[in-house]
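Chapter review: from sequence to fold.
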Amino acid sequence: MRKTYIDNIRWMTVVIVVIYHVLYMFNGVVTSGVIRPFTPVQYQDAYLYFVYPWFMLLLFVISGMSARFYLNRHSEKEFLKRRTTKLLVPSTIGLFVFWWIEGYFNMAIGGAFANLSAVPKPMLFVIMAISGIGPLWYIQMLWVFSLLLLLIRKIEKDRLYGVCEKANLPVLLCLTLVIWGAAQILNTPVIVVYRFGIYGVGFFLGYFILSHDAVMERMEKWWLPLSLAALGSGFGFMFSFWGTSYAEHQVLDTILCNVYAWIATLAVLSVMKKWGDFENSFSHFMGRKAWGLYLFHYLPLSACAWYLHLNVLMPPLAMYLLVGAAAFFGALILYEIIHRIPVLKWCICGIGGKK
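The token string follows.
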């Protein structure tokens, strides 16, 4: 049985991701690979500080929960086949079929072509394909965690899973130390989004602990204190690091950041367990389109930002609105077109066979 509040968390978080990327494209801190900022001080960048510590951790947590829900009804063989089709195929084969286009714009924005004029065209295509990974790093990591999960299941045989059902709020809060420790390890040095430590722990905490109805029912009772704690730690984090330089901005592994990330994740889960178990025509639509919105939003976003940056002078608000509209509506249009073509649906969207 599907859990509606989890579906609602998923599409709402994807919307947060899209808005984040729209603002990030013009941010004033991390200026590599993005369009330049509009002004030296950009108060709209506060949104980036407020959401980036936790929104991807939350996605990995609910992915772990969803993995448990799926395995409760399907075999491990079905799980592996579905995860490979949905996650690995788009982020490997799909790179060379379609996502190289996104790689082109990523490289154009980053000014990479100026240094690659002597590179043979076939090699340049490979570089563009790899540069087109973009948001697909999430599904690449998720596939790796899914493989590890199948191995762990064969070893623990639900013994650990059964023990984790007893977890209460103090235990969940103590896991902040685990999150902080995991954030210190298995981080790739150049491509910093591949943080196997913290995201892997988030995925497995979702699978072993937060997928239990009993655990979520305990958390639901604490939705208000958790929300206030998340807001307090969030504002504390934001004001502590506002206006720092790029070098000083590398604070992903600080205690404050990871406390905020985990508390915010628990707060969202508890609030949505309490208030988010609803369904209407809009939430149903967004739930069905969330996958396509996540996959496709960055291509029209970056293309629109690049062409507007080169050819049009307009106020920052207008730029944000146009790029945001391109991200949302462009993603939905691309998804509607591509997922109707069987071969492209399989290699780009990871959708094939029966649902």
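Two observations follow directly from the output. The first helix runs from residue 4 to 24. The chain has 17 helices and no strands.
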